């Protein structure tokens, strides 16, 4: 305001000067005064425009620590920036490494959001005190209760099912029924599994403990171990490749791993079977995110989290990895929908983290490593 007042004052002086000096060389002096006045007013105007531009450009930058791969998140963050003007800076690493980094950085962390895979990892971050609760009607409306933390620390953003994949050449799907049935004698020497050292089967076993109890679950896992055709595999893709090679007939995988294999080879001799449809349903898990405890841009980070739960973002977020949207109002992609409908286990995925330690101990006792 002071700058504009000064400019106006100068303009008035210039005008008065022109009146009292009209007996002098009017044309020359008037021209100089008019030019000077114009330059002064233009300078004031330019200064005002610049101030408005700086105010318009003063958008925050949200920093995300992501265990989700760069090629899966970069396009959607770029879209958010295009729509809102808010820039998203992200750093990718494994879930464990990012959790340890947040702990080490403490209040000095630049991270505003932690985005990671598996409810077990999200639960662990929450237990370490790395999140702050988010009160949001948008998130409560968009994300079902069983796909979010009870304390509002984190929210699921996409869903993956851990299900049975079988050889279409050697298995009749009528032989299949439940996770538990894979412990039966008929599958001896026909089962392949991913290593117990990875979180995905730990989460499956944890939710089984939650539903079936520890004793029954240990009997089932021991039966799986007895039926293994090979040593546990390092990842889901390796287990499916073993089925294709005839080393085993069935395995347990996250649906998006099957999706990747099917994308590369639409004629692959494998198929999905949805277990436990007459009971609790298929085990599902999430990738999700939470607002970090020491976020420097909490409001902007919450706005991004809410946007990621919206129908417009959910479609892209899930489709990028052949997953299911966490927002129940959004349909999966045609590619994923072609696998068929299924009943999902409605137990809160938080149990995958809460009972993870028990699951690891149980698997070790059963000889599943």
Topology (SSEs and partners):
Blueprint (H helix, E strand, L loop, with lengths): L1 H19 L5 H32 L3 E6 L3 H15 L2 E6 L2 H11 L7 E5 L1 H9 L9 H6 L12 E13 L23 E2 L6 H14 L1 H14 L8 H9 L5 E5 H10 L5 E4 L9 E9 L6 H11 L2 H9 L4 E2 L8 H4 L13 H4 L1 H10 L4
Care to describe what's here?
- α7 crosses α8 and α7 (199-212) packs across α15.
- Strands 1, 2, 3, 4, 5, 6, 7, 8 and 9 form a nine-stranded mixed β-sheet that branches.
- Residues 1-48 and 50-55 have low confidence and may be disordered.
- The protein is an alpha/beta fold and 369 residues long.
- The protein folds into two domains: 61-159 and 286-330, D-Maltodextrin-Binding Protein, domain 2 (3-Layer(aba) Sandwich), CATH 3.40.190; 160-282 and 354-366, 3-Layer(aba) Sandwich (D-Maltodextrin-Binding Protein, domain 2), CATH 3.40.190.10.
- α3 (70-84) links the parallel β1 and β2.
- Helix content is 48%, strand content 14%.
- The termini are far apart.
- It has 15 helices and nine strands.
- This is Iron(III) transport system substrate-binding protein.
Radius of gyration: 30 Å
Number of strands: 9
Describe the biggest sheet? 9 strands, mixed
By CATH, the superfamily of the largest domain comes out as Periplasmic binding protein-like II
Average pLDDT, all residues: 89
- Percent in helix: 40-55%
Question: Helix count, per DSSP?
Answer: 15
In percent, how much strand structure appears in the residues?
5-15%
Highest CATH level, the class of the largest domain: Alpha Beta
- Element-level helix/strand string: HHEHEHEHHEEHHHEHEEHHEHHH
Count of spatially separate domains: 2
Write down the overall geometry: globular
CATH topology of the largest domain, what is it called? D-Maltodextrin-Binding Protein, domain 2
Distance between the termini: 72 Å
GO cellular component, one term: outer membrane-bounded periplasmic space
GO molecular function: metal ion binding
Binding site for Fe cation: 256-257
Family: Belongs to the bacterial solute-binding protein 1 family.
